[in-house]
Amino acid sequence: xxxxxxxxxxxxxxxxxxxxxxxxxxxxxxxxxxxxxxxxxxxxxxxxxxxxxxxxxxxxxxxxxxxxxxxxxxxxxxxxxxxxx
Length: 85
What we know:
Blueprint: E1 2-3, E2 9-15, E3 20-26, E4 32-38, E5 57-63, E6 78-84
């Protein structure tokens, strides 16, 4: 689990059966905000979530790939980002 400089906690999970990534976001006190958001390349991942406790901004993945595989974050082919608004 990764912790941001503001204390938000992000957990990434890979589903090897279906071959996709998801992420979960927690408050600094480890309270879940959103769980199981499927990671899709070059798309704002939290666009359709009306949760007021989300940080102001957009989560996404920058890549030239059409699909993010198991090792694509590790090998640098995909990068998870947060763009504050």
